[in-house]
Amino acid sequence: MMELRGLPVANSLTEAFKLRINQLKLGGITPKLSVIRIGNNEDDISYERSIIKKFSSLDAVAEVTGLPYDVRQETIEAVIKKMNNDNNVHGILLFRPFPEHLSYEKIKSVINGDKDVDCMSQTNMARLFSGEKNGYPPCTAQAVMEILDYYKVDLAGKKAVIVGRSLVVGKPLGILLLEKNATVTICHSKTKNLPEECRRADILIACAGSANMITREFTNPSQIVIDVGINVEEGRLCGDVKYDDVADYVQAITPVPGGVGTVTTIELLKHTIISAERYNAVVRI
Ligand SMILES: NC(=O)C1=CN([C@@H]2O[C@H](COP(=O)(O)OP(=O)(O)OC[C@H]3O[C@@H](n4cnc5c(N)ncnc54)[C@H](OP(=O)(O)O)[C@@H]3O)[C@@H](O)[C@H]2O)C=CC1
Ligand SMILES: Nc1nc(=O)c2c([nH]1)NC[C@@H]1CN(c3ccc(C(=O)N[C@@H](CCC(=O)O)C(=O)O)cc3)C=[N+]21
Fold first, then answer.
1. Is 164 annotated as a binding residue?
2. Nearest atom in ligand 1 to 188's CA
3. What range(s) does the Tetrahydrofolate dehydrogenase/cyclohydrolase catalytic domain occupy (predicted)?
């Protein structure tokens, strides 16, 4: 078994990012991400912590606006609009999912597509689905692609099976894998014979948010397993894959922690840098 760790992937990108941030600073621009957190969700807080650590270690800025769980729709829209209009803000990230009382449809239509670094807006979704390269795919889906690319996993003609169809991970990942000529199956809670579907995969991607659900019977010995899940079980972080059951059996696997999550944060930084560079190019014309 080979462990596909996220850290070498993240490190391989970091040096180039430092140079690009420096270059921007020479022009008087510091890449800045504005994050909106609603309530005190544990998942959001752990992501927030990683973001702040990563951005500050590379001299970029991540600023968090915390809003109460019962925040009003108008308030959140006003906060986003202010960020849209602030030239010092290059990326906007809202943690998902939102509380039930807020309209996701309305919020995603307010956020400026050019600052939408995690693919929430219609504009960016459309860009992703139509294959245009001027948008930002969701960071997690892109982190999976980054890992496959770094470890030179050939995708052309391979059968990729994704467990999970959310807009943040499963669906966009299907599109990105299709672009690399994989044959894609997206499974979900209504899928029949899930273990059998999964067993047929050359590349199995678990993004269901269900701790340890992928056991050995879902896998095969030549399989590459990517575990996107971040779940907390008895105070410990674990993925959607039952690691101890599967790791020895398959060809390669990403660990949790230390896998996809590590690269997600760096993709977010990448998008923020690109957005700052695009802004820089425009103000200099
Ligand atoms: N590594 C990282 O950087 C990140 C990790 N995550 C993690 O990824 C996981 C998924 O997140 P997210 O997409 O937001 O989750 P959602 O809850 O939005 O979506 C889960 C999807 O998985 C499907 N599903 C759930 N349980 C099962 C099951 N037992 N069998 C088959 N399908 C199932 C659901 O099916 P249906 O549609 O039918 O309900 C749904 O499509 C979570 O653990 C999350 O913490 C999320 C973002 C970033
Ligand atoms: N719009 C939106 N996009 C998201 O991508 C999103 C979200 N909302 N809401 C919350 C979940 C959760 N999530 C995490 C990502 C990384 C770590 C994390 O801890 N990363 C560590 C490493 C963890 C590991 O080693 O696996 C790091 O970057 O160093 C945690 C949680 C993103 N999410």
1. yes
2. 32
3. 4-118
